[in-house]
Amino acid sequence: MCGVAGIIDYRGQKISSSLVEKMLRSINYRGPDESGVYISPVAALGNVRLSIVDLAGGQQPLSDPSGRYWIVFNGEIFNYPELRQDLRSKGCSFNTQSDTEVLVQLYATYGKKCLSMVNGQFAFAIWDKMEEELFIARDRIGIRPLFYNLTDGVLSFASEIKALLVQDHIKRELSHKNLSQVFTFWTTITPNTVFEDIFELSPGHCMTFSRKGLKIEKFWDLSFGKRQSNSSLDQVIGELNELFSDAVRIRLRADVEVAAYLSGGIDSSTTVAYIKEIEPGILNTFSIGFEEKDFDESSYQNEAVSFLKTKHKSIRCSPEDISESFPRVVWHTEIPLTRTAPAPMFLLSKLVRDNNIKVVITGEGADEMLAGYDIFKEAKIRRFWASQPDSALRPRLLTKLYPYLPQMKQANPAILRMFYGYKLQETDNPYYSHLLRWNNSNHIKKHFSEQIKSEINGYSPFESLERQIPPDFGKLDYLEKAQWLETTVFMSGYLLSSQGDRMAMANSVEGRYPFLDYRVIEFCNSLPGDLKLNGLNEKYLLKKMMKDRIPESIIKRSKQAYRAPIKSAFFLEKRPAYVDEMVSPDFFRKAGIFNYESVSALFAKIKQTGKTSEIEDMIISSVISAHLLHKLFIENDSFVSVDQKLNNHKTIRESK
Questions:
Q1: Domain boundaries, the chain
Q2: What is the pLDDT of residues 57-93, one digit of tens each?
Q3: Which of these, 250, 138, 203, lies nearest to 488 by C-alpha position?
Q4: Which top CATH class is 233-370+490-556?
Q5: Residue 488's closest CA among 527, 431, 538, 550?
Q6: The pTM is what?
Q7: Fold observed for domain 2-220
Q8: What's the 3-state SS for 460-525?
């Protein structure tokens, strides 16, 4: 795993290697082992490397044998041994054992068609020095990030936004329209980011930059299609078992130790069970526990550890831990957060790194691919309720979804209608499954400053989403629509970013996700809905597949969403000094994002009652994180400490 950065400038001005090195130093934690820069008259490519495959020979930038193509690469190509064998049969020779060299030679041989051949998680850039053309691609589902800016004909790209902002010509300014997207969808809709004129390459897309300009293309779609098959349940289980086993097997490929997260849920328990079956022996696993009982899953974690016989370590996360780490979390996420959930993940990856481990396998993706989230069941119940909107019994089904939420424990029909009746009968709305969540998020925008309210008046965040909707979206059934939205908007933009790549790489740890193997995704998307959500039984097929392979109590347990404390983290008696600064009248005035009177009235009410709703918790996290973002990225003049160094650095210079 690595960080990449680069500049392409056709204007004839010399590109400074020190500028690219400065970009790399800002993301040095992504690759602390070694670094390199390639410089030509119009192109500069840089890389910081976390060495995992071919520790001695995989330093970047790296070229094909002809020296025509130069690559910087963030990620892993898991099927690289098979691809190497194919290339050898075509006469290619190799100087290293790295997947990076396989990738650059694959591109030299097949061009952009190589993207359909690779199985991995990646963001890479290849410079064709003969054609003076840059090619960039990002993996199918958006596991690894890639951002860019195009100003006055100069293209800059990097793994993180902060690496772009070290350049003087790129302005540091938040986009108020895109903040409106965040406080609707919990993320921006690609290619937008919360920064003006900085864009994100969308998942499953590639881009070419040459003297002719910038061209962006899609090479993979999250598509759904029913299989024409009369397979029995056992046959379908057998197919998924074979696919998933291979997905885990190739993700164990590394020249360093591979560990795993074990949360106590069915997803991580499944991945760990497969690892143990494929490679019996000692497996290090890691988990988070919480001091606050409502968030803690330690008992299930202990059951899984005992059953699967792993060597386990865990951290116990307190509200103080969350508040103390939150500024660093925002520094790494580069986006306001409606939740504090990334903070414990940051602390968990630190535990992994403190144990000298660089790679962890995790269970992300199972909920999206096999309909595990409550939002899918919620949509199903709301549709059922909508057919008899006056029913007092049908909405009571919602109480079964969220037993861990205090307001649901004694909810009567009137309360349920108030919380869950939003646009209840608009079942033909293509966004029906997510309307309630997005409306709840919209409450955050009620606290925007008058200036921002005036500026975005008439703007709808749905404009950007509508441009992403595929032409055949209307043909999908209600569950497929919900899965598309959850995967494309939330998983890629929030989960894999704020809780995945960013929190792991902050501590130089690579996450690997077998459920997000594109073969597994395509298989799950071909399944009928009742194999995923059977009645209100989520992940039906996975539960059947894992019977007797993980603890029965974990298979049968109610779904509990991963959450972390918010109110108790920021309303501590002895809270960190930055919290008071972020909610001070002076900072509200400086940032200009939220209205002080409106937010302070809410905070006063919370202090008086000692209670918050889910929406109020989101407002707390959103205000503090947005203000931290302003302080860290808009006010801060120095992104890179002079003490940060590039290890084992090399510079490759080429003349015309």
A1: 2-220, 233-370+490-556, 572-635
A2: 999 999 999 999 999 999 999 999 999 999 999 999 9
A3: 203
A4: alpha beta
A5: 431
A6: 0.96
A7: Glutamine Phosphoribosylpyrophosphate, subunit 1, domain 1 (3.60.20)
A8: CCHHHHHHHCCCCHHHCCHHHHHHHHHHHHHHHHHHHHHHHHHHHHCCCCEEECHHHCHHHHHHHH
